[in-house]
Amino acid sequence: xxxxxxxxxxxxxxxxxxxxxxxxxxxxxxxxxxxxxxxxxxxxxxxxxxxxxxxxxxxxxxxxxxxxxxxxxxxxxxxxxxxxxxxxxxxxxxxxxxxxxxxxxxxxxxxxxxxxxxxxxxxxxxxxxxxxxx
Length: 134
Description:
There is one protein chain. The protein is of the alpha+beta class. It is built from three helices and seven strands. It has a seven-stranded antiparallel sheet with strand order 1-7-6-5-4-3-2, with helices on both faces.
């Protein structure tokens, strides 16, 4: 077991995965990840709400919800986390110009408001966990 895996277990992150990925340009990776969210948010059937630290939305009739957050590391790299059938997926969290993280976790959905707050809390837990590792 690596030190990071051990630390994840101690921190009780309860993640399906947390991966560090090398990239030529993490900003481009993040922008590519946000396209689905941006395309859906302008649809007439989009149900969206903005709260203090994120914008959440879903398309009426869909079970997928996406939340866009202010990025904790690279200001110009958008951060969108997707929820679909009891799991959250964070495809790209830009850490630097050439490093990004991805993560996934099981998430029970209660309602759209609670789900957004739960995702925000998990994101903050991941960021706090990574602080001593960077």
